[in-house]
């Protein structure tokens, strides 16, 4: 009798272990299915969605910059990677402006005072506008900051960067110069 109950016990343990492995595999596959598995983000190669953002200082409409290469950067003052990349974005704008490259930095800050103070303290002397309603980033499906789109002179999205980037890297400035 004892031997039979031992077999039942081990049989139950094997079934449980198999079920656990199967559950872990299903969870893993579900997570992977959420990842993009193609060779490029889905909007690359399509026209950039147009938007207009107005704050107390500026009104920016993306389509006004057709004919220029646009580096569309979504950022916020409370975002450490955004703060990290801002000096290189400003420097790249300084170097590339004569080549028709324009940075449009759209801040997601709700706090106007914090936004203005950051722009002042960090000498952010590029085109920046605050979109407290977060309509422009929602249009692009952006929720991780910083997130940046490179838009060519015809208004077509060519690249997307998620996270902080050193915008002074030769590969990036060469890419922008060729658009």
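^ Assign residues to that structure.
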């Amino acid at each position: 009798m004892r031997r039979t109950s031992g077999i039942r016990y081990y049989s139950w343990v094997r079934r449980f272990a198999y079920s656990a492995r199967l559950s872990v595999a299903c969870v893993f596959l579900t997570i992977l299915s959420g990842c993009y598995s193609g060779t490029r983000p889905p909007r690359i190669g399509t026209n950039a969605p147009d938007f207009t953002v107005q704050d107390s200082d500026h009104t920016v409409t993306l389509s006004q910059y057709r004919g220029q290469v646009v580096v569309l950067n979504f950022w916020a003052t409370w975002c450490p990677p955004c703060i990290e990349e801002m000096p290189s974005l400003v420097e790249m704008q300084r170097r590339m402006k004569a080549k028709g490259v324009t940075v449009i930095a759209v801040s997601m800050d709700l706090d106007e005072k914090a936004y203005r103070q950051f722009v002042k303290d960090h000498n952010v002397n590029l085109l920046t506008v605050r979109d407290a309603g977060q309509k422009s980033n929602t249009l692009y499906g952006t929720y991780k900051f910083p997130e940046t789109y490179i838009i060519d002179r015809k208004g077509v999205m060519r690249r997307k960067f998620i996270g902080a980037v050193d915008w002074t890297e030769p590969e990036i400035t060469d890419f922008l110069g060729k658009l």
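The longest strand covers residues 69-75.
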